[in-house]
Design brief:
globular, 34% helix, 6-stranded mixed beta sheet, alpha/beta
Length: 277
């Protein structure tokens, strides 16, 4: 029995990398006091948050980029601090920054006193976490801590919450799923739009590994996305599969197309939110 559908269940414009990059490059937040559209990444440990940042940076720079440090085969969070990553356009003295920034933080782990505390993510949603704050799984951030930002500016606020999840991982433990749901509920209370990005899709399905254009024809990936949607409550049209750069040393248009498809939606959702605040 074939693992592929006869037709893709979602249409995607392949081969429009330059056009999609220009869309991002020309974007400007709708309000003058907001310089950057801020995207907060969260998710389980080792599911590809930092690698996603590097893939986005790679698309923008036109070369392999290692903006965020990553580790392989780690069951502990490699990122331990609150880090804002800006994406550079151009080189040397002429370089500028794209109007979108990604915020990376410690990953979620099973049980108590491990990984980032869900209350710290909730504080980050309201921009109460200072740049460089080192997370402590045993002791969540309080107003008395030096890492607490009591008076965030409009430009500090988070505009989109992105859950990063690996397609090629075992089933997420119930305790982690509950933490993710709690964070989602807080973001919903704040009106912050949310999407999910599913990484490592080539590890899930051999047909995708052979040809990324099979992404929306893979039965296995569609089931994985549906199961995750049902478990966490993120609608299917807000879940985007990507392949992060890993072993490649040259750019590939199909990888970039998937990354930019997610990024365009992030910008559209974030801009809708900025217009309302």
């Amino acid at each position: 029995m074939s693992t592929l559908l006869d037709e893709p269940w979602r249409e995607l414009r392949w081969g429009k990398v330059q056009e999609d990059c220009q869309y991002v490059q020309e974007y400007k937040p709708a309000k003058d006091d907001i310089k950057y559209l801020r995207v907060l990444l969260y998710g389980p440990v080792g599911h590809g948050k930092s690698s996603l940042i590097n893939s986005v940076s790679t698309v923008f720079r036109g070369r392999i980029s290692n903006l965020a440090l990553t580790a392989t085969l780690s069951n502990k969070s490699f990122t331990t601090t609150y880090q804002t990553h800006k994406f550079i356009e151009g080189q040397g003295s002429s370089k500028t920054f794209y109007p979108v920034v990604f915020i990376d933080m410690m990953g979620l782990e099973e049980g108590n006193n491990r990984g980032v505390h869900e209350n710290d993510i909730k504080l980050a949603l309201q921009a109460h976490v200072k740049e460089g704050h080192k997370f402590n799984p045993v002791s969540p951030l309080t107003q008395r801590d030096p890492g607490y930002n009591p008076t965030p500016s409009a430009d500090d606020k988070v505009h989109v919450l992105v859950c990063v999840i690996s397609a090629n991982s075992p089933q997420i433990k119930p305790s982690i799923l509950q933490k993710m749901k709690n964070v989602r509920e807080r973001a919903s209370d704040l009106g912050i739009p949310q999407i999910a990005i599913m990484t490592n899709i080539d590890g899930l399905c051999d047909e995708i590994e052979k040809d990324l254009k099979n992404v929306y024809m893979s039965k296995r990936l569609r089931k994985k996305m549906r199961d995750f949607s049902a478990a966490v409550g993120i609608p299917m049209n807000c879940i985007f599969p990507v392949k992060n750069y890993s072993h490649e040393i040259n750019l590939k248009d199909d990888i970039d197309t998937l990354t930019l498809s997610a990024l365009r939606t992030i910008i559209d959702f974030g801009d809708d939110f900025i217009e309302k605040i």
